[in-house]
């Protein structure tokens, strides 16, 4: 799960959903995935690439123990363990299977413009903050009826 450029580097195969088969992920496939990621990002979509790693039988017992985590669920005051590249668990990152890209977009509800207008009429100033780029933030603000000039 992450950026297409990073995810595809860890993938050796690709899942073909329509025909439910797994095929090798070629360099041309990687370029196409990254290009689609770029196009969707330029269209102001939030893009995430998905992959998974089949877990070999040799890891099944380890994963059942309380010592191995696929998700880091330590408390913030615990010291992180150092991961050695020659560690056996490091192999779980390699040879993943690419599943696909997901592009999503945020658009305000249709009623929000009226709510903001009512707030403004009542003397409540509405301020919109967004982690997105300035162009997308202004577009969403305009859709909500906020003056962006």
Rounded mean pLDDT score: 79
Overall body shape: elongated
Main sheet overview = 4 strands, mixed
Uncertain segments: 66-74, 79-86
Tally of helical runs:
5
Strand segment count: 4
Helix and strand pattern = HEEHEHEHH
What class, by secondary structure content?
Answer: alpha+beta
Query: Beta-sheet strand percentage?
Result: 15-25%
> Can you give the helix content as a percent range?
25-40%
Secondary structure layout:
Elements: H1 4-9, E1 11-16, E2 21-24, H2 27-42, E3 46-52, H3 57-64, E4 96-104, H4 112-121, H5 134-143
Parallel strand pairs: 1-4
Antiparallel strand pairs: 1-2, 3-4
Task: Report on this structure.
It is a single chain. By secondary structure, the chain is of the alpha+beta class. 34% of the residues lie in helices and 17% in strands. It contains five helices and four strands. Strands 2-1-4-3 form a four-stranded mixed sheet.
Quickly list its features:
alpha+beta; 149 residues; 4 strands; 34% helix; 4-stranded mixed beta sheet; single chain
Structure, briefly:
This protein is α+β, with helices and mostly antiparallel strands. The protein contains five helices and four strands.
């Amino acid at each position: 799960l992450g950026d297409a450029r990073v995810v595809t580097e860890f993938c050796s195969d690709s899942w073909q959903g329509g025909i439910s088969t797994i095929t090798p992920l070629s360099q041309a496939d990687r370029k196409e995935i990254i290009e689609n990621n770029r196009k969707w990002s330029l269209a102001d979509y939030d893009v995430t690439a998905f992959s998974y790693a089949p877990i070999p039988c040799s890891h099944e017992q380890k994963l059942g123990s309380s010592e191995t985590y696929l998700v880091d669920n330590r408390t913030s005051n615990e010291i992180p363990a150092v991961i050695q590249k020659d560690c056996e668990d490091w192999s779980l990152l390699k040879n993943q299977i690419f599943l696909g890209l997901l592009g999503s977009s945020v658009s305000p509800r249709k009623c929000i413009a009226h709510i903001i207008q009512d707030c403004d009429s009542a003397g409540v100033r509405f301020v919109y903050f967004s982690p997105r780029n300035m162009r997308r933030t202004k577009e969403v603000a305009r859709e909500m009826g906020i003056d962006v000039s």
